[in-house]
Amino acid sequence: MYHLRIVLSLLFVLNCFSDNSIAQTKTYSKQEITNLTDEASRYLKESNFEKSLDISKLALRSSINANDLYSTAISYITIAANYAEMAEFDKAIFFYNKSLSYADKTSNDTLRKRINNNLGNIYCFEKKQYEKGINFYENSLKYSQKLADTNQVFMTKLNIAWAYFDIGLFEKGFPSLEFINKYNKKYGDVTNAVAVNMLNGMYYGYKGVPDKATSSFINAIKFGNEGNEKSDLSFSYLEYSKYLLKNGDYKNAYENLTQYNIITDELYNEEKIKKANLAGINLELDEYKREIDKIETEKVAQLQSLRKSKIIVLLFGVVFCFLLLLLYTLFKNNNFKKKANEKLSQTNIELLAAKEKAEEASILKSQFVSTISHELRTPLYGVVGITNMLLDEHKELAHSPHLSSLKFSARYLLSLVNDILQINKIEDNRIVLENLTFNISDEIDMIKSSLSFIAKTNDNVLHVNVDPSIPEFLIGDKLRLSQIIMNLVSNALKFTKKGEVSINVNLVKVEGKTHFLEFKIQDNGIGIHATDQEKIFDKFVQVSRKETDYQGTGLGLSIVKQMLGLFDSDISLESAIGKGTSFKFIIAFEFNPERTTEIINNIQVDMSSTQTVNVLVVEDNRINQVITRKTIEKNNYKCSVVDNGYAALEILEKENFDVILMDINMPLINGFETTRKIRLKGIGIPIVALTAFDKTEITEEALSAGINDIIIKPFDSIKLFEIISILISKPKSIA
């Protein structure tokens, strides 16, 4: 960086030696230039071409010196208009194009509109190149419409109609004439009344309507004599004479033609044109002089550049020597970096080896957790299924607290298995909370019942205090809430002997439909040492306990903290050795009676079915076979069960089924391979994977094998029958 500063300093010194002072011509103010262009335009309207050109020349020189693009374009427009009036149309076109080149460097669409319109006039009515002229008119019309300049749209339409009529294309010009007639009262005035009436006369003459044609021409001549539009008046006499000649009225045709010649001679006085030509020659010489001045200015700049180059050559030697020194320094640094890089390369090799070992260990850990979770889900499916069967077959046990606790505990254990498996997903905020309706007192009572065994084991009393002002039904994720409270209460019960544990729920505030509940789990157990309180929420952390204490996995409080994060909440802790521990947190739930009713209605699904559906279950576990069969037959479906993939292939050759529920982890041949063989036989029956594997682990292979959907055991029967209903309603096709 230091070397770079030195180089920049040398270049700055070099620049200071140069002489940047260039003689400048006097520049006019913007208002002075505007006054000149306005004066030139005024003389043009008075047909004083000499004065108009002289002033335009001065305005042009001033606007170029001032780098005023707008005024430069205006000056060229006035010059071009002078030449157009003097019938020097090639020069007019040249200067209009010059003005257009400057107008295009600005954002002024008004200039472009005006120039295109004037070029259209020259090409159509003077050069008789109508196609080219009409293209310029169309460009002008585009800019006028963009600017919402309705008056100019009116005038451009008039010019387009005139151009088409001039070459006899009356039908092409009629839409423009129709527009003019429609908006004449709104946008027309005395300046274009002559042309409007003349065009109507030409059109009615073409259509063979003599009364309207004659009336229109007479009105055109009348307005022309009353106003100052001598050019339009002359054309009205000319077109009227053509019309009269066509209809055999030679006398009146001659008289109108005579009037045309008189006005034309008046407009183009030879003496005025002669003087204007002299002014025009001077203007062209001025253009050449401007080019020469430009070349001279470039020569002066080159001389200054040469003087600057001499200094550059001198300084270049100094810079070159400095660069050689810099290169030598870089060479030395490069050698030093080379040695350092060799050491870094060796370190990177060692780090890469360590990384590969860590990744291998991570894969083995993931496989282990996946296997354990699969093995846990399979017996849990049996526990949940048998519990449901007992409740269905023995209605007298429907209100049994023991059976309800068993069912609740099994589902809680299943949720805990899933959370341990996907703890990384929790940390990445990929778990979305559910919105279900629930009664907070019922949930707390269920937790109390489920933990009554632990309470009795340690001779503890579990108290529940729920604020009566809390609404009966709230909306939120009751399962996650239950997991949080069960973790905290079970910890309190395990580390309290012959004591008391209380669950307190209070309504602390209400904001609209949101109710904030404070949960406080308090015990009078052994307490937690102050040095351990900051780390107990970390994963796999065990604070010092006696050997007889329950140790657990060290994940309970970590999961609690992460789940509270999903609720946008945090947990606080107060504890003292020998006095007990108190955990406290606040969660916001929604209270919305209308939405609660809607949620309840949505979950009240009719599980009965009058449709005869034949289901094939491929499952090797005997207990799971019984549970799945009972669940399916309870919904009035027919069910056949086989215990391996080969048996499934065999029965499919004899019977027809509407859907197949396929276990994945089976002996002899797994569910994926069985599905592939079924599809190879051309059988398009929908297949649902009924598995204890995590869904994310098998989705890709399941789809490639031809499986239509996946449901994880233990499953929600409502969800299963919804999937079956959707699949059997679709046409059968080979996946």
Automatic annotation (TrEMBL):
Residue span(s) of domain Response regulatory: 614-728
Residue positions, PTM 4-aspartylphosphate: D663
Span of the signal peptide: 1-23
Top-level EC class: transferase
Enzyme Commission number, as recorded: 2.7.13.3
Coiled-coil region: 278-305
Catalytic activity: ATP + protein L-histidine = ADP + protein N-phospho-L-histidine
Keywords: Coiled coil, Membrane, Phosphoprotein, Signal, TPR repeat, Transmembrane, Transmembrane helix
Residue ranges crossing the lipid bilayer per the database entry: 311-331
InterPro entries: CheY-like_superfamily, HATPase_C_sf, HATPase_dom, His_kinase_dom, HisK_dim/P_dom, HisK_dim/P_sf, Sig_transdc_His_kin-like_C, Sig_transdc_resp-reg_receiver
Record carries keyword Transmembrane helix: yes
Domain (Histidine kinase): residue spans on this chain: 371-591
Residue spans of the TPR repeats: 73-106
Protein name per Swiss-Prot or TrEMBL: histidine kinase
Natural source organism: Flavobacterium algoritolerans
